[in-house]
Design goal:
CATH superfamily: Oxidoreductase, molybdopterin-binding domain
Structural class: alpha+beta
Order of helices and strands: HEHHEEHEEHEEHEEEEHEEH
CATH architecture: Alpha-Beta Complex
Number of helices: 8
Shape: globular
Length: about 300
């Protein structure tokens, strides 16, 4: 059976399927140590959230059921409705994240430790997919820089941060049909990774992440296209050279290392000038850096953003 490339049909023209999963009930007052043993359950309430001043303001959040039933997660299928169905039994406890490479104190973190590294913040971020659809989500987590600092910080050799997703063909049988190299890998320049907006995410809508949305811990980089926000992270490695990234390996002419949201740089097969918010019919203009230019444009001062797409 032929493999469909992710961009063969622009999903800017697709409306999400009708709601078919019920949102799980909130469970109140669960301490971090107990939460860490329950990460396989989507819908566990995350207590004591801090409202972050870094949140996007003035925009309606996308309905929970749209965000949890319309997903890119190729390990669980290449169709948007497959991950919600095929990831239901994904085992995410116990879980560890290794921080290694050019850091002063390489170490592994359990989910219990990750939950307690810093106060959990609710950050409402725009999230823009390269396929020209977008969402606004109240993510939960804290700046990625916190886990790097807790590993002693970067050494003088570190210039980039490489990420790796969990991959188990037994739990993720659709991975063999994905058409991409697995495990999934991504990367950021060190200054991008240390920017306060780069979020190490453990939840959304006040609850733990559902498996199809990257449980138990993922990255959210709101000024870049969504495939940079790697899901189900097991390894963070600081390195001296630019690391390989999955979609860049797949098609470097279509998916650049930087992948900043840029309405003036089109995908080779469709325009990036417009986007459609899930749950809405009309299109809207795509914002440079997804609307976060005031915070991040200085990272790219002097760079040719068409060459470094």
């Amino acid at each position: 059976m032929p493999i469909r490339k992710s961009g063969d049909i622009p999903y800017s023209e697709v409306t999400p399927k009708a709601v078919y999963l019920n949102r799980r009930a909130f469970l109140a007052g669960v301490p971090a140590a107990i939460l860490a043993t329950r990460f396989a359950r989507a819908g566990t309430k995350l207590p004591n959230l801090v409202k972050s001043p870094l949140s996007t303001t003035g925009e309606k959040t996308t309905p929970y059921n749209d965000v949890t039933t319309y997903n890119n997660f190729y390990e669980f299928g290449t169709q948007k409705d497959q991950p919600a169905n095929l990831a239901k039994n994904f085992k995410t406890s116990p879980w560890t994240v290794s921080v290694e490479g050019d850091v002063a104190k390489p170490r592994k973190f359990s989910m219990d430790e990750i939950l307690k590294l810093a106060p959990l913040e609710e950050r409402i971020y725009r999230h823009r997919c390269v396929e020209a659809w977008s969402i606004v989500v109240p993510w939960v987590g804290y700046s990625l820089s916190e886990i790097i600092k807790q590993s002693g910080g970067p050494t003088s050799r570190a210039k980039y941060v490489a990420f790796e997703s969990y991959y188990d063909p037994k739990q993720m049988p659709e991975g063999v049909h994905a058409g991409i190299q697995l495990p999934y890998v991504e990367g950021l320049r060190l200054d991008e990774a240390m920017h306060p907006l780069a979020l190490l995410c453990v939840g959304m809508y006040g609850e733990t992440l559902p498996p199809q949305d990257g449980a138990p811990v993922r990255l959210v980089v709101p000024w870049k296209y969504g495939f940079k926000s790697i899901k189900s992270i097991v390894k963070i490695r600081l390195v001296e050279s630019q690391p390989p990234t999955t979609w860049n390996l797949y098609g470097a002419n279509e998916y650049g290392f930087y992948s900043n949201v840029n309405p003036t740089v089109d995908h080779p097969r469709w325009s990036q000038a417009k986007e459609r918010r899930l749950g809405e019919f009309s299109k809207r203009d795509t914002l440079m850096f997804n609307g976060y230019g005031n915070q991040v444009a200085s990272l790219y001062a002097g760079m040719d953003l068409k060459k470094n797409y």
